Amino acid sequence: MSPRHRVVIIGGGFGGLRAARALRSAPVDVTLIDRRNYHLFQPLLYQVATGSLSPGQIAAPIRSVLSRQKNTRVLMGEVVDVDPDARRVVLADGAVVEYDSLIVAAGSQTSYYGHDDWRQWAPGMKSIEEATNIRHKILYAFEVAERLADPAERRAWLRFVIVGADPRSLARVPVDLDDLAAVPDVRPASFRPFALYGRTKNMNAMFGYALARRLDGTGSTVNGAHPGVIRGTALGRHSRGALRVFGATLSLFVPGPDAGADTPAWLAVSPEVAGVTGRFFAKRQEFPTAPHTTDVARCDRLWEESARLVGLPVA
Ligand SMILES: Cc1cc2nc3c(=O)[nH]c(=O)nc-3n(C[C@H](O)[C@H](O)[C@H](O)COP(=O)(O)OP(=O)(O)OC[C@H]3O[C@@H](n4cnc5c(N)ncnc54)[C@H](O)[C@@H]3O)c2cc1C
After folding, report:
1. C-alpha 126 – ligand 1 centre gap (Å)
2. 290 CA distance to ligand 1 centroid (A)?
3. Among candidates 44, 22, 42, 41, which has minimal Cα distance to 32?
4. How many helices (H) and strands (E) does the chain have?
5. Which fold has domain 5-104?
6. Which of 1, 26, 43, 194 has the smallest number of CB atoms closer than 10 Å to its CB?
């Protein structure tokens, strides 16, 4: 009897698990390799980073997820090399796993656009370790502030900046508060990614204003910042034709990441904006976002509806 076809999958994230499941009934032997033995539900990392979920609630052992799949084994190990000629992958401990077909689903990593030295100040949020690091930074800031007697010193620890796209150019994209949980119609003909994108950016501004009002009087400040269009983000790399050429040409003229970091960093530390809260800035200038994003009742409703949707108490 000839040996069965061997499929190796690198990565037990959404992509790797999906691939493994698709091979459930195929006449193949699947080996899924991941450097950690659990599947991480990345979209809930924000909640871990802000303390509303614990890490265990968003991680599931990969072996349990695939336990009913007879043709699949799970190995924990870090892949450090792939030899396509010999058809084998090499793990950090020197182990070798041979394959007939290889699926690489190793995900992505945070890019600092050539500024890896920024990592210590702006941690990524792709792993539990990074999310708990952010949570520690937030809680630590509150703890330090609690013990400082000087209000100016205390406020310096309590500045929050929400960085996102420019709601001015997206001002006309509405936020339908009656339709927050709606699954968008994703048929290719009617799927309008830019409209969904604009909606989320306008909602970011609304959340910022609602949060600032809720924190009013506590010494904490919250402002929004638009970093601007930045070179090196590969914006438009998935576009085709004229749009792609436009994106590539535009990237020649836009500033680098230093310019993008300027306004958020200025809002976070500059004495010029000490005590300023509930505003939106670009290039160190305040600007008004669309009236539909500043309406107090609408912002509060978005806040309350969102809390309800994710099961948090309305505060
Ligand atoms: C904070 C956050 C919020 C998000 N929110 C949303 C959202 O609301 N909606 C949405 O659609 N998407 C969201 N995403 C994006 C979504 O989570 C990712 O697109 C998705 O997780 C990518 O899946 P993946 O399988 O390609 O990679 P990953 O989920 O990153 O999985 C890759 C796996 O490969 C493993 N791996 C990597 N390198 C190696 C190696 N050398 N050896 C062995 N194993 C390795 C990793 O340990 C990991 O388990 C969010 C992402 C983040 C970070």
Report:
1. 7
2. 34
3. 22
4. 10, 13
5. FAD/NAD(P)-binding domain (3.50.50)
6. 1
Residues with CB under 6 A from ligand 1: 10-16, 33-36, 42-43, 45-46, 78-79, 105-107, 125-126
Domain spans, the chain: 5-104, 148-310
What one-letter code names the amino acid at 148?
L
Is the Cβ–Cβ distance between 222 and 312 less than 8 Å?
Answer: no
User: What is the C-alpha to C-alpha distance for residues 144 and 35, in angstroms, rounded to an integer?
Assistant: 36
3-state secondary structure of 204: helix
Nearest atom in ligand 1 to the alpha carbon of residue 34 is 44
Burial of 179 (C-beta count, 10 Å sphere; 0-12/13-18/19+): exposed
Contact (CB, 8 A) for 58 and 46? no
Rounded distance between C-alpha atoms, residue 102 and residue 90, angstroms: 13
- For the 148-310 domain, the top CATH level (class) is alpha beta
**What's the gap in Å between 108 CA and the centre of ligand 1?**
7
Residues forming a β-bridge with 34: 76
- The answer to whether 231 and 249 are in contact (CB under 8 A) is no
Is residue 1's pLDDT more than 60? no
Give the Cα separation of 187 and 184 in Å (integer).
9
Beta carbons of 274 and 156 less than 8 angstroms apart: yes
**pLDDT, tens only, 246-298:** 777 777 788 888 999 999 999 999 999 999 999 999 999 999 899 999 999 99
| Dihedral class, residue 232 (left if φ above 0, else alpha if ψ from -120 to 50, else beta) | left
Ligand 1 geometric centre to CA of 17 (Å): 11
First to last CA, the chain: 66
pLDDT digit string, tens, across residues 173-197: 888 888 776 555 556 666 677 778 8
